[in-house]
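Thread title: Can someone regenerate the structure for this chain?

I was given the following input by a collaborator and told the matching structure tokens would be attached. They weren't. Posting the sequence so someone can regenerate them.
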Amino acid sequence: MTDEDDGPSGAWETRRAKRRRGPADRPSTIRDVAAKAGVSVATVSRTLAGNYPVSTETRERVMAAVNSLHYVVNVHAKALSGRVAGPIALVLRDITGPSLAHVAAGVEEEAGRRGRLSLVCSTKGDPEREDDLVQLMREQHAAAVVLVGGTVVDDAYHRRMAGYAEALDLAGSRLVLCGRPPLPAGVPATVVDYDNRGGAFQATAQLLTAGHRRVLFLGGAPGFSSAEERRLGYRDALRAHGIPLAGELDTSGDYTRGSGYLRTREALRAGLGFTAVFAGSDMVALGALAALREAGVRVPDEVSVVGFDDVPFAADLTPALTTVRVPYEELGRTAVRLALEREVEFASDNHVVLSTQLVIRDSVRPAAG
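Best answer:
Regenerated them for you:
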């Protein structure tokens, strides 16, 4: 949001006012249907709701009018009257990433099980689009708005999230932060996170226990919450095993294959002498494996590699990738469940952390010598 002090509604309303329809674009109303069918508004309402007997002739006239006018039931009004269950909106940066796709699958599964529609929206990293989407879901009376993925956590972020949470709460909705850190006390939001730091500790410790002392860390972008937690886990493990932190081995970059490839290639060319790689994501690990293969370095005989996420292709790589499994689908399911059941089971605790698990496969060997 460019003007933090305006709150969640001021800037949104200014932008959205430009998009409102003019009178000539007005959609058909229930009154238009009633006039065309020659019946009362109440009769149209009863016919469409199916909760009151009407004659076959009347029903046919009403439905003919509905079809000819392309009338769509006003879900907004029905939501206000409590006659329809609001959708679950999932808002994420990019819908193409494999890990986020699994969160979306979990949200869709749990929403469907509860008879709710799920909507998936992408921001492409644009905060103004995120503002607009949250406001739109508020206007549509979404039961919950789930924001997914790591983010830079600062005062401006806290103000934006507090604005979202309060605006949604006033509309009877719920903000759920998925894979993000908690907000200050008193903010009406639910947080479903996973143990980034513990998972990174396990991954690094696996390599150190195998005798590796120089572990190249291909971390995420500086400042992003999940990336910073994984970096802390890496450093915790070094400290626990009495290994000094080597700054040249602690690198930052995007969680992409290209980034993993370039950073590993640079480390090889610089002669950093690492015997293991801990990649901050499986996509980064894929790039690291490509760079090692290109350089003629055998995995795991000469260099061991561990990833993070356990995306579907991890088990199919050669060698199969040792990695940290994140319960992404369970994150999505839990986000929906807790948002819808918060009054029953979630009143006193708005922050849940799911565990991660180290999955041992074939990409790690004991250090030579």
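The radius of gyration is 26 Å.
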